């Protein structure tokens, strides 16, 4: 499989417009962007927690 070209992209866009309509697409993209942002924030938090547990010298003084 190769990359998606312009000729393949046009029918995909037409089908999406027919299914969702022009007004729903910005809402869908906004929701997708928020979901990606939340996922990135969650992975950053988990990575920082994992680093704190592996490096006890870097723990904060919350105890």
UniProtKB/TrEMBL annotation:
<feature type="transmembrane region" description="Helical">
    <location>
        <begin position="6"/>
        <end position="22"/>
    </location>
</feature>
<dbReference type="Pfam" id="PF02416">
    <property type="entry name" value="TatA_B_E"/>
</dbReference>
<feature type="region of interest" description="Disordered">
    <location>
        <begin position="43"/>
        <end position="63"/>
    </location>
</feature>
<keyword id="KW-0813">Transport</keyword>
<comment type="subunit">
    <text>Forms a complex with TatC.</text>
</comment>
<keyword id="KW-0812">Transmembrane</keyword>
<keyword id="KW-1133">Transmembrane helix</keyword>
<comment type="similarity">
    <text>Belongs to the TatA/E family.</text>
</comment>
<dbReference type="InterPro" id="IPR006312">
    <property type="entry name" value="TatA/E"/>
</dbReference>
<keyword id="KW-0472">Membrane</keyword>
<keyword id="KW-0653">Protein transport</keyword>
<feature type="compositionally biased region" description="Polar residues">
    <location>
        <begin position="49"/>
        <end position="63"/>
    </location>
</feature>
<keyword id="KW-1003">Cell membrane</keyword>
<keyword id="KW-0811">Translocation</keyword>
<comment type="function">
    <text>Part of the twin-arginine translocation (Tat) system that transports large folded proteins containing a characteristic twin-arginine motif in their signal peptide across membranes. TatA could form the protein-conducting channel of the Tat system.</text>
</comment>
<dbReference type="InterPro" id="IPR003369">
    <property type="entry name" value="TatA/B/E"/>
</dbReference>
<protein>
    <recommendedName>
        <fullName>Sec-independent protein translocase protein TatA</fullName>
    </recommendedName>
</protein>
């Amino acid at each position: 499989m190769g990359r998606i070209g312009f000729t393949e992209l046009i029918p995909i866009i037409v089908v999406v417009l027919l299914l969702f309509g022009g007004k729903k697409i910005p809402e869908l993209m906004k929701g997708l962007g928020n979901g990606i942002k939340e996922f990135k924030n969650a992975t950053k938090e988990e990575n920082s927690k994992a680093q704190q547990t592996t490096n006890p010298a870097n723990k904060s003084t919350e105890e």
